[in-house]
Specification:
CATH superfamily of the largest domain: Alanine racemase
Radius of gyration: 23 Å
Number of strands: 18
Structural class: alpha/beta
Number of helices: 11
């Protein structure tokens, strides 16, 4: 009997999702986002597997992620794009690790160009088309093309932008961003172009360009923030029952007495909580999957424990494993019940959860 939560990574499901995304992208390059430690599932494992499955470029956010991924990939000649770009003092480490910075501002461009010192260094250029986070504004890109000496020692091999509302196909900002990106990217005719994330891939061919950068749908989340039959569950998080007990009518469960039994209720106490990555806000809409049905979470999730309704469920005994997310309880559904997204739910899974791998 295990005494800890268990996270199982299904590499066959990961390969299936990779294939679905490649097909939807119409033959364009798929460059997986493996930032945040592969969305919480292990960047080294995920990237190594996807490399064997044909991926040749990957995206990370932080410099530390890029350095770790380069070490993990060893002598594989992968392109690793660094979304944070060139932060102060980072240029030597970026070059040493053969990372490709995504330049987000004129000062970053100047820093990387200055670091080159007469050599030619690779870079990508990020143009903000409506997200208003990182990236050059389109008018700054126009100014840049009038002062190309700023790029004298840089090989801008890729121009990217990022969609703000790709999960909402009818949102008008998608078309506006597409138009802005098409116009801005044309200023750099020798560079490849990349716009689509997971949701963007399913917006259609106009959004695909040369490279797509899926994240969440590789790992089991739907491109519209709801379960999608084409996308398989990669992560299964389970926890064992520690104790089964009967709570009399009128008594409460857990901190804050947030749940009071309206009738005599049989309850399972699971060995998982928010220290394992289960959102504290999962009550009152959250559930787990066990013995062919969803079983409601009762009361607040605590640091180490969850209470689950097992009334009329004879199979629920100490040691039995209950599914918190997985094939029977999609990560999008579990996230929505806790008022969050699949992105957050996956990246919150804590190291305390034992990990195992199947498939592949």
């Amino acid at each position: 009997m295990t005494e800890a939560s268990l996270l199982t990574l299904d590499l066959d499901a990961l390969a299936s999702n990779h294939a679905v995304l490649k097909a939807a992208a119409g033959g364009g390059e798929i460059a997986p986002a493996v930032k945040a430690d592969g969305y919480g599932l292990g960047a080294a494992l995920v990237a190594g597997f996807l490399w064997d499955d044909g991926a040749r470029a990957f995206y990370v956010a932080r410099l530390s992620e890029g350095l770790a991924l380069r070490r993990a990939l060893g002598d594989r000649k992968a392109t690793i794009y660094l979304l944070d770009g060139v932060t102060p003092g980072s240029a030597p480490a970026i070059e040493a690790a053969r990372l490709t910075p995504v330049l987000n501002s004129l000062p970053q461009i100047e820093a990387w160009n200055s670091h080159a010192r007469g050599r030619v260094l690779d870079a990508a250029l990020h143009i903000d088309t409506g997200m208003n986070r990182l990236g050059l504004r389109p008018e700054e890109a126009v100014v840049l093309t009038g002062a190309m000496d700023r790029l004298k020692f840089l090989n801008i091999g890729l121009v990217i932008s990022h969609l703000a509302c790709a999960g909402e196909p009818g949102h008008p900002l998608n078309a506006r961003q597409l138009a802005r990106f098409t116009e801005a990217a044309a200023l750099f005719p020798n560079a490849r172009r990349s716009l689509a994330n997971s949701g963007g891939i399913f917006l259609g061919g106009d959004y695909h360009f040369d490279q797509c950068r899926p994240g969440i749908s590789l790992y089991g989340g739907g491109p519209r923030d709801v379960p999608d039959a084409r996308i398989k569950a990669v992560a299964t998080l389970e926890a064992p029952i520690l104790q089964a007990r009967v709570v009399p009518r009128g008594e409460s469960i857990g901190y804050g007495a947030a749940f009071t039994a309206e009738d005599t209720t049989r309850v399972a106490i699971l060995a998982a909580g928010y220290a394992d990555g289960v959102p504290r806000a999962a009550h009152p809409r959250g559930a787990v999957w066990f013995d062919g049905a969803r079983r409601p979470i009762l009361g607040r999730v605590s640091m180490d424990l969850i209470a689950v309704d097992i009334t009329d469920c004879d199979a629920a005994r100490p040691g039995a494993m209950m599914q918190i997310i997985g094939p029977d309880l999609p990560v999008d559904d579990a996230a929505a019940a806790a008022g969050t997204t699949a992105y957050e739910l996956l990246t919150r899974i804590a190291p305390r959860a034992r990990r195992t791998v199947t498939g592949g």
